[in-house]
């Protein structure tokens, strides 16, 4: 059954959610405070790179089933169910989540909802306890639910239409029934639904991210040990992955995790545990964070060594700027962090990424940017592979051999074919391998 759904905050999560809500048959109104974003979305253009999203958006904008606005009045007037999808970044100068955007949504919406019997659904990743506080800000006949989002950038559409599970944090059977109705086409595909209270729903998301970050840092810690012991972490991971209790996903050693979620989420989770008096329980997440950040320094150290002990007068090619492939998101990107460190130490850095160049230029205007991978490599003393785009895996090391000053590649993602690069005359180094 079609519902009138609004999506407040149309960034990576919200724009995807809005287009997918239209795809499963709802009338959708998206709202953002950024008028440029709204103008782009209205014209059927996604203001960031996400495979498959623009087609979906354009299709539903064209039929009028998906519209965008900057007006909260229009949203309150139109919607039966309101999804809040605004950002929860790390607080400036602290580890806790900055809840000003989440709060602003309720502050704007609450006074407009009286008498409308609306359901407000939080999707942002928030510290446990936030939903209870926000629920108290709504008028009596409006209800809150918490429905955390697990989508992965690069697979956002697929993950929204066919998620691993849906989590409904609710206080009433009415709220649960309304969420089941909105997601009916997704649930009928066989998606499991877990119905919980508010705090459990909030914690499912933060603990999922804590687990994923821990798994990555676990294999990166093993990489540190492998480096000291002369072992090969890629073979170690392969052997571990045959144990179905461990599994192979998120077990690739490399320069570590970044992006707009894992780093800030594990810090906010640690900060919140401290406030709750259970800081000890999550003390290990600090170590997870430390291991992760040490991998970036390790790449810089390997690059310096490869450059002959110092970066002055050396050309360093950096392949990758996005925090992961198939996305243009550069928030807390290991690739750009490494590039900036090397530039600070006097290196001539040339960065190339298939999709994230505009975002990278805005965030790091003093780095030099190339027009292609080949252009970045031209005359390089050291090549760093830091975001595992397919385009980089497909590069022909034999052709590139003649473009560089010295054929030296450091594979920060353990994703290039080491044998092929070595056979083409390159010195190939990778994290956690001899
Ligand atoms: P984002 O920064 O891309 O998008 C947030 C949007 O909210 C922006 O467009 C911003 O202009 C808008 N906004 C800010 N204040 C507003 C207000 N008062 N009213 C309306 N719009 C407002 O962030 P994102 O990556 O989409 O993340 C949003 C939330 O989803 C975060 O809590 C994040 O942790 C969580 N999340 C993100 C992902 C992901 O892969 N990006 C996955 C799961 C969960």
From TrEMBL:
Coiled-coil annotated spans: none
Domain UDP-glucose/GDP-mannose dehydrogenase C-terminal: 317-418
Entries under Pfam families matching the protein: UDPG_MGDP_dh (PF00984), UDPG_MGDP_dh_C (PF03720), UDPG_MGDP_dh_N (PF03721)
NCBIfam families registered for this protein in UniProt: NDP-sugDHase (TIGR03026)
EC number: 1.1.1.22
Keywords, sorted A to Z: NAD, Oxidoreductase
Identification of the protein by name: UDP-glucose 6-dehydrogenase
Keyword hit for Oxidoreductase: yes
Domain of life: Bacteria
Recorded metabolic or biological pathway in which this protein acts: Nucleotide-sugar biosynthesis; UDP-alpha-D-glucuronate biosynthesis; UDP-alpha-D-glucuronate from UDP-alpha-D-glucose: step 1/1
Molecular-function GO terms, alphabetical: oxidoreductase activity
Family stated for the protein in its record: Belongs to the UDP-glucose/GDP-mannose dehydrogenase family.
The reaction(s) this protein catalyses: UDP-alpha-D-glucose + 2 NAD(+) + H2O = UDP-alpha-D-glucuronate + 2 NADH + 3 H(+)
């Amino acid at each position: 059954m079609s519902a009138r759904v609004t999506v407040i905050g149309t960034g990576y999560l919200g724009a995807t959610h809005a287009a997918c809500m239209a795809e499963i048959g709802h009338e959708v109104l998206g709202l953002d405070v950024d008028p440029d974003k709204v103008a782009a979305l209205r014209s059927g253009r996604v203001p960031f790179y996400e495979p498959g999203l623009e087609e979906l958006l354009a299709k539903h904008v064209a039929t009028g089933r998906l519209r965008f606005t900057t007006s909260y009045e229009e949203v309150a007037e139109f919607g039966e169910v309101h999804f809040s999808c605004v950002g929860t970044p790390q607080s400036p100068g602290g580890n806790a989540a900055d809840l000003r955007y989440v709060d602003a949504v309720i502050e704007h919406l609450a006074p407009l909802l009286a008498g409308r019997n609306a359901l407000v659904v939080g999707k942002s990743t928030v510290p446990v306890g936030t939903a209870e506080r926000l629920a108290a800000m709504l008028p009596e006949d409006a209800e809150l639910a918490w429905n955390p989002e697990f989508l992965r950038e690069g697979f956002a559409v697929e993950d929204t239409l066919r998620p691993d599970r849906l989590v409904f944090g609710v206080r009433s059977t009415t709220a649960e029934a309304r969420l089941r109705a909105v997601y009916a086409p997704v649930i009928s595909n066989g998606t499991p639904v877990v119905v919980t209270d508010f705090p459990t729903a909030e914690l499912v998301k933060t603990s999922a991210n804590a687990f994923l970050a821990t798994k990555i840092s676990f294999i990166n810690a093993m990489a540190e040990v492998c480096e000291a012991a002369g072992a090969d972490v890629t073979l170690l991971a392969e052997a571990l992955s045959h144990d179905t209790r461990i599994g192979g996903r998120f077990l690739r050693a490399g320069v570590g995790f970044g992006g707009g979620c894992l780093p800030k989420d594990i810090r906010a989770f640690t900060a919140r545990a401290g406030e709750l008096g259970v800081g000890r329980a999550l003390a290990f997440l600090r170590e997870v964070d430390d291991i992760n950040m040490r991998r970036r320094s390790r790449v810089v150290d390997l690059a310096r060594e490869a450059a002959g002990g110092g970066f002055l007068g050396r050309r360093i090619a950096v392949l990758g700027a996005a925090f992961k492939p198939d996305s243009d998101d550069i928030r807390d990107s290991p690739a750009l962090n490494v590039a900036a460190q090397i530039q600070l130490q006097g290196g001539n850095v040339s960065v190339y990424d298939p999709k994230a160049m505009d975002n990278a230029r805005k965030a790091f205007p003093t780095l030099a940017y190339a027009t292609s991978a080949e252009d970045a490599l031209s005359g390089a003393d050291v090549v760093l592979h830091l975001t595992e785009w397919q385009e980089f895996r497909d590069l022909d090391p034999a052709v590139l051999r003649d473009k560089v000053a010295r054929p030296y590649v450091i594979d920060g993602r353990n994703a290039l074919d080491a044998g092929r690069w070595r056979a083409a005359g390159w010195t190939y180094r990778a994290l956690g391998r001899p």
